[in-house]
Structure formats: structure tokens, C-alpha cells
Automatic annotation (TrEMBL):
<protein>
    <recommendedName>
        <fullName>histidine kinase</fullName>
        <ecNumber>2.7.13.3</ecNumber>
    </recommendedName>
</protein>
<dbReference type="InterPro" id="IPR006189">
    <property type="entry name" value="CHASE_dom"/>
</dbReference>
<dbReference type="Pfam" id="PF07536">
    <property type="entry name" value="HWE_HK"/>
</dbReference>
<dbReference type="InterPro" id="IPR011102">
    <property type="entry name" value="Sig_transdc_His_kinase_HWE"/>
</dbReference>
<keyword id="KW-0547">Nucleotide-binding</keyword>
<keyword id="KW-0067">ATP-binding</keyword>
<dbReference type="GO" id="GO:0004673">
    <property type="term" value="F:protein histidine kinase activity"/>
</dbReference>
<feature type="transmembrane region" description="Helical">
    <location>
        <begin position="299"/>
        <end position="322"/>
    </location>
</feature>
<feature type="domain" description="Signal transduction histidine kinase HWE region">
    <location>
        <begin position="347"/>
        <end position="425"/>
    </location>
</feature>
<keyword id="KW-1133">Transmembrane helix</keyword>
<keyword id="KW-0808">Transferase</keyword>
<keyword id="KW-0812">Transmembrane</keyword>
<keyword id="KW-0597">Phosphoprotein</keyword>
<dbReference type="GO" id="GO:0005524">
    <property type="term" value="F:ATP binding"/>
</dbReference>
<feature type="domain" description="CHASE">
    <location>
        <begin position="68"/>
        <end position="252"/>
    </location>
</feature>
<keyword id="KW-0418">Kinase</keyword>
<keyword id="KW-0472">Membrane</keyword>
Length: 552
């Protein structure tokens, strides 16, 4: 009996040790799985939010780029943009044209608003209080046109926003910087309306540093934060940029409220920073489930089961625990695969929408009214061919960038055999590759085909170099066509001028200039390498394309 009791006691001791070990392993495993799942979900969400904000900022840049010598007193300035902005994105609340009117233009502006059919064409303050136009002695910012025009919005034109506590300072700062700028969160449409942001892009006339007005887009805050998923592992809030103790919180129905953070409230699990409208915004993520408590409860259950087992049951429990671990790893791989698939689909949607927006702009600008159809058809086919070539190259590299020299292939660039390229074969980002491909096509397609080689020197030389030290390296590109002049070179199209002077430099965050020398035509582009290479984009696509492996 004593020996049997010793054996039973020994088996019981083994059971206790195995139960404690199993409980500890299960506790740590649950914490690790919850932490990994939460971290991946937050990273994917923050990346999608940043992509969504970037798309909306790009819309503002494109809209401002399409303005050509606006007349500030016109009330239908958005008419040429309506089809473009709806095709690009349709989730804005209001798109508007705010003109900077001089005192002498106010009477004409009132007449224009009245003829456009707006319900209250009187020039007045932002709160609908009348203004004495005789006392105004400086330019004011007046809403002259908006989209969509509905019974809720027809009464807005005529309001002056330069004295608005939020929009006024935002417009003033946008005028100084000359770039799109986002406002603080404010109610939209009405005093108790949905909380959102206003993005203003100044319209600068050639030869003037003072803006003629602003194109603005208003967006609700909840869709920008992607807060409508009630099955996510976390809840996301936006930190108030004016008060660190306040947070903007959205419920499952997308209604946003301002919540005060009190002492003793739980701290967010992670804080991520996104950029929009020239400002940094902080997104705070709160985990919905208490991972530590759940892991502790699971460990207690496992320990209780283990303590009740005999030696044979302990062995069976070890086998079951092993299978449970293997099953957990398989579930982790499956979860990772499904999240990766979702990220790939979202990335594909983003790429397709971006490409369609570029193609729409190409078609619209190429087939403009009055264009020579033969020339327009040739340019349109060439531009789309250039886009197709760069998409093929990006697909082959899984959208992690392409070699710069690959953009000069003969199948995409006209007269490629007459172009000598010289420079390091750097790998540029997907966004930079699309802009540079169109840029190279526009430069090559407008070169003079009738000119041949001059001595041993080729007709066209494309040279680029990288200068400076990390992280402030600079990309300098120079395109030079020899034996040509303003009289012999094919004149650049409107689309080409916009691409050369504005779209391509802004897409790369740099500057460009073009000019004629005594013997050549020169185009130069200077941009930071951080934008040309864009390691954040490459890392994101690399993580999406990387194989999913189980944790070891």
C-alpha cells in the first residue's frame, strides 16, 4: 500500500508540475496571439487611413491644378471639375469654391450669385449676419460655388469666411504656404451637423503670390477614421489637435462626439500618427478585449483540469495540449492569411482607382475641345501605352518599385534609340514610376523627329544623379535635346505643360523648370530621394507580398 501510495503521489506530483507548466504556456501563448493580432490589425488600419487621406489630398491638388485663370466673381467655377471630382472620389460632403474678393468686386459678385439661382445671394458674414459692404476696405473670402447643389446647400453661397474662428485662420495659413491645408474638426452643414474636416487648396494665378481663392472639400470625420467596423479588435479615436485631454469618438453608426479624457481612464494600446492637409493627426487605439484577463482565465481552467488528472490523464492532457498548440498555430496562420488577403484587396483597389484617375485625366486633357484628332489619338495611345508599361513593370516587382532605366524601354518611349541615358539604376517607388513614365513619354513625344545625330553626340541625353548625404539626399534629373529650338520643337500640349510644370514635381515633392539654350531644350527636375524611393510604400507592399508563416 505504501508503495502504491508513493507511486500515486509521484504521479500526482507529475500531474501538478505538468498542469502548472501547461497553464503557464497557455497564458503566454494567448497573450502573444492577442498581441500579434491586435498589432497587425492596427498597422493595417493605420495604413488604410493614411492611404484614404492621401487620396483626398491628391484630389485637392488635382482640382487646383485644373483651374486656369479663374474669374473670382463667377458663380459656376466648379462646373469644369464636377465630372472629375465625382469620378475620383464621391464621399465628400461639400466641394466649394471660395473666392478672395476685393471691395470693388462685391457688387458684381452679388449679381453673379443672384443670376446663378442661389437662394440668398447677399454678401454676408459666415453666421448669415449682414455685412455693410461700404465699410469693407480689404479682400474677403466669399463662398461663390459649391457641389452638390441641394436645398440644404443652396443658401451657403455669399457667406464670407475670413472671420470664421476655424476656417478663417486655415484659409489665411493656406494662402501663406501655397499648399493644401486641413482645418480643425468642426460641425459640417449646420451647427449640430456631423463633425468633419475641411481641406482647402489655394489657387494661385501666374505671376502672383496672392491666391485668387480656394478649392475646398469637406469630409465627415468617421469615414476618414474607418470606424464603422464593429467586429474589429479595437476602437479608434482621434486626438483633439487643440486639447490633448479631448478625443473624438465615433460609435457604430458613425456619429462622432467629443469625449474628455479623465484621470484614471485606461490608456490607449497604441497611438499612430497620420498626415493630412499639411498636419499630423494622432489616432489612439483601444483594445476591445482584456487579453490579460482572458489569458489568466484560460490558464486557471487548464491548471484545474490538470490537477484532477491521474498519470494516464496527465499523459493524455499532454497530447491534447500539443495538438492545441499546433491548432493555435494553424489558426494564427489562417487569421494572418485572411488579413493579408484583405490588405491585398484594399491595396489593389487603391492602385486601380489611382490608375483610373490618371487615365481619366489623360483622356480628358488629350481629347479636349478643338484638338487635332489625329495628333490627339497618337498622344492618347502613347500615354496609355506608357501607363500600361509601367503597370507591367510594377506587377513584375509586386508593386515594390521599378528600375529607373527600365522606364526608357523602346516599347514605352518614342525614339528610345536616340536617347542616351546616364545615371545610377535606382529603384523608384510605384507612385514615382507612374509620374516619371508619363513625364518621359511627354518629353520624348514632343522632341523633333527630323533631327539626327550631331557628330558623335546623340540628339537626346537623359541624365540623373543622386547628391547629398542620408537622409537628405536629392534626386536631380536633366533632359536635354540638342540641335533644337523653340521654332523647331513641337509645342507642348496643355496636358504636357501641366504634367511637366505641376503634376510631376508635386507628386515627387520637388520642383521643375524648362528652358531653351543656344543649341538645346532642357528640362530639369529636382526632388528629395525620400519621395522618389518611398521606403514606406515599399515596406508596405513587401509585407503584403511576403509569405505567411506560423509562429515558432
Amino acid at each position: 500500500m505504501v508503495r502504491l501510495g508513493f507511486i500515486i503521489g509521484f504521479i500526482a506530483l507529475i500531474g501538478v508540475l505538468l498542469s502548472g507548466l501547461a497553464a503557464y504556456r497557455v497564458h503566454e501563448q494567448e497573450l502573444a496571439i492577442d498581441g500579434i493580432a491586435l498589432s497587425r490589425a492596427i498597422d493595417v488600419h493605420a495604413s488604410l487611413v493614411q492611404d484614404r487621406l492621401t487620396e483626398r489630398e491628391l484630389l485637392a491638388r488635382v482640382a487646383s491644378g485644373l483651374f486656369r485663370s479663374p474669374s473670382v466673381v463667377k458663380a459656376n467655377m466648379l462646373q469644369p471639375l464636377r465630372s472629375a471630382i465625382y469620378a475620383f472620389k464621391t464621399d465628400f460632403v461639400i466641394a466649394s469654391w471660395i473666392a478672395r474678393l476685393k471691395p470693388g468686386d462685391l457688387a458684381a459678385a452679388q449679381a453673379e450669385l443672384k443670376s446663378a439661382g442661389f437662394t440668398n445671394p447677399t454678401i454676408r458674414d459666415f453666421d448669415d449676419k449682414p455685412l455693410d459692404l461700404r465699410t469693407i476696405n480689404k479682400p474677403i473670402d466669399v463662398l461663390m460655388d459649391l457641389e452638390p447643389r441641394s436645398p440644404d446647400t443652396l443658401g451657403f453661397p455669399g457667406r464670407a469666411y475670413d472671420r470664421h474662428s476655424v476656417i478663417g485662420p486655415m484659409l489665411a495659413q493656406a494662402a501663406v504656404t501655397g499648399r493644401p491645408l486641413a482645418s480643425d474638426p468642426i460641425p459640417l452643414l449646420r451647427q449640430n451637423g456631423p463633425i468633419g474636416l475641411v481641406l482647402a487648396s489655394p489657387i494661385l494665378l501666374e505671376g502672383s503670390s496672392e491666391p485668387a481663392g480656394f478649392v475646398t472639400f469637406s469630409y465627415e470625420l468617421a469615414p476618414l477614421m474607418l470606424t464603422d467596423d464593429d467586429r474589429s479588435l479595437f476602437s479608434v479615436v482621434l486626438k483633439d489637435p487643440d486639447d490633448a485631454n479631448d478625443e473624438y469618438v465615433a460609435n457604430d453608426q458613425g456619429f462622432v462626439t467629443l469625449r474628455a479624457v479623465r484621470q484614471g481612464d485606461p490608456l490607449p494600446s497604441v497611438v499612430r500618427t497620420v498626415t493630412f492637409g499639411g498636419r499630423d493627426w494622432s489616432l489612439a487605439y483601444y483594445a476591445k478585449n482584456n487579453a490579460a484577463q482572458r489569458a489568466q482565465q484560460t490558464a486557471i481552467v487548464v491548471a484545474a483540469i490538470g490537477l484532477a488528472l491521474t498519470g494516464i490523464v496527465c499523459g493524455l492532457f499532454g497530447y491534447v495540449a500539443y495538438n492545441n498548440l499546433r491548432l493555435s498555430r494553424e489558426i494564427e496562420v489562417r487569421i494572418g492569411f485572411e488579413r493579408r488577403l484583405t490588405a491585398v484587396i484594399d491595396e489593389l483597389n487603391h492602385r486601380v482607382k489611382n490608375i483610373l484617375a490618371v487615365i481619366q485625366s489623360i483622356v480628358t486633357r488629350t481629347l479636349r475641345h478643338g484638338s487635332d484628332m489625329d495628333v490627339a489619338r497618337e498622344l492618347l495611345i502613347g500615354r496609355i501605352h506608357a501607363m500600361s508599361n509601367v503597370v507591367t513593370l510594377l506587377s513584375e516587382s509586386q508593386w515594390q518599385g521599378v528600375k529607373l532605366k527600365g522606364l526608357f524601354e523602346s516599347r514605352a518611349i518614342p525614339h528610345a534609340d536616340r536617347i542616351v541615358i546616364n545615371g545610377p539604376d535606382i529603384a523608384v517607388s510605384a507612385r514615382a514610376a507612374q509620374s516619371l513614365s508619363l513625364l518621359f513619354f511627354e518629353l520624348a513625344s514632343h522632341s523633333d523627329e527630323g533631327l539626327s545625330l550631331v557628330g558623335k553626340h546623340p540628339h537626346i541625353v537623359a541624365n540623373w544623379e543622386v547628391s547629398g548625404e542620408e537622409p537628405d539626399t536629392i534626386f536631380h534629373f536633366r533632359w536635354e535635346e540638342f540641335n533644337t529650338s523653340a521654332a523647331t520643337r513641337r509645342e507642348d500640349s496643355d496636358f504636357g505643360l501641366i504634367l511637366l510644370d505641376r503634376v510631376a514635381p508635386e507628386a515627387l515633392g520637388g520642383t521643375a523648370k524648362r528652358y531653351f539654350t543656344d543649341v538645346s531644350y532642357v528640362y530639369e527636375l529636382i526632388a528629395p530621394m525620400a519621395t522618389v524611393v518611398d521606403m514606406n510604400e515599399r515596406d508596405r507592399t513587401g509585407e503584403i507580398s511576403a509569405p505567411v508563416r506560423p509562429a515558432r
